[in-house]
Structures are given as C-alpha cells and as structure tokens.
Amino acid sequence: MDTRALLSLVTVADTGSFSRAAAGLGFTQSAVSQHIAGLEKTAGTPLLTRRPAVAPTSAGREFLRHARQILAHEQAARAAVVRVTGRDADRPVSVTVTPATEHLVPVGGPLAAVVVHDAAGAAAALTSGGAEVAVVDGIAAPGDPLPGSEADMLVRIVAEAPVGVLLPADHPLAGRPGLDLADLTDARWLDSTRTRCATSDLSAAARLRLHRGVAYSGSSAAVVASLVRAGHGLHATPLTEAAPGDGLAVVPLTAPGLVHRVEVRTHVPARPAVLAMADAVRTTS
C-alpha cells in the first residue's frame, strides 16, 4: 500500500480540506484526490464525506486508525535506520518531556529542542524518531514499567517515591496513618492530566474510577496546592521529605501500593551525544 496515499488521507482528515492537505504535503490537489479514490476503491467503501463538509465516514475512522499506525511504524523504521547507520551523527539532540519533568533537562550542550507532550505523546515521539531522549513520569506498581517503554529502549529510573494523598489540613482524613484508595472513590479529586501524579494516571494505575471535581489542565504544583487547600478536590503526590505547605496534609496511600516514577528513555543503539544528554538528566526530588 502506498504510504503517500495514507498520508494524504490522514492529512485531509486532519485539515478537513483537500486543498489544504495538498498545500501542506506539496502535492497537487488532483494527486490527493487520486490517492483518496484509490484507497476507497481498495476499501470498497467511501472513507470521507465530501459534502456538506469533508469528514471521515464510520469506515473511514476505522481505516484512519490503522493508517496512522502504519505511518508511525514507517517513521519509526526510518528513525531506526538512521540510528543504526550513524547518519547525521553530529546533529543536536531532540528531547521530549512530560510537563512535570521539563525542568530536569539541562540547558546547553548539543540540545536541539525540548518538546512537551503527555506521557503517551512523549512515548510516541521517541518511538517514531521525533525525539531521541524522552523524560517521562507516571504512576505504576513497584517493579512495573511505566506505559510506553519497549524492548529496544534503555530506561533509567531517575526518581521513585511512594504515593500519598494531598488534602486540606482540616480534612477528616488528614490525621490517618494511611489511606486505601478504594475508600476514596466517592471523594472529589482534581480532574488533572498534566500534573505530577495526575489523577488520570492514578485512576489508570489503580484501575479505579475516581470521582472528578474541578478540572485543571495546567502543570503547576502551586496551583494544585491552592486548589486542594480551597477544597476543590484531593490530589496524589509523591511522598518526599518536603512539607506540603500551610493548610495542607499528605497521608500515605497504603493500598494499592503505588509509586510515582521519573524515567529517562533512549533507544539502543544511541549515539554518544544522546547518551550524554540522557545521563545529564538528574533530580533530587
């Protein structure tokens, strides 16, 4: 299957326009139309509606899911060849991070760019060759890998700490020696996806549905503390030596046993500049 046709389909679906897709890809609009027509002939059904708007059909949405995977695999294969052959050995190192780990990347040296993604996006960038170093964080059971690691990756754990529950100091549970997450499913939790110990990560790792309170789309620890202090929801946090601050308490999460981990990932093999950049990522938190 011609991957150029798949790229045309994905780009038309993303832009909602044959002309914009053609301009972005450097193809003629006629070529893009022929690509889509060929794919629809192969599939035996329309993949896109044309009127009143350009959009995937139900069959097109399923086809697109596989098309994106094929394109990602092709990009990953190209990146693997570059790593193995050592081409462009002197180019700057590209790094991807999760929002809570951006500050861990050292400034200077052979650094091309630091791109912030969520954990899934950072893992995808490393797999596809969009980045050569990924600094990710997440919640997992002790000894379990964070999602997104693969067999050909070198993974170094930068930090790992048990998980606690951040709550207002006057909360009825603030004086407990430990908490069971299963007893807190009816409590309100900050609806966060980009913070350290994000509620979405906690819910997925514990395989429990948590009741969401106020939504917070940022990554600031100070804002999280303010929201918890004001009673807008509980939040998970790594258990560290640092005090939580005025008006807050941290109680260890005793069940399930979970840890918050920061990992640095690179592919194997990797050029020396990449390994040096990965080794320079350090944290004491």
Automatic annotation (TrEMBL):
The keyword Transferase does not apply. Residues 1-57 form the HTH lysR-type domain. Keywords: DNA-binding, Transcription, Transcription regulation. It holds the Pfam family LysR_substrate. It comes from the Bacteria. Belongs to the LysR transcriptional regulatory family. This is LysR family transcriptional regulator. It comes from Myceligenerans pegani.
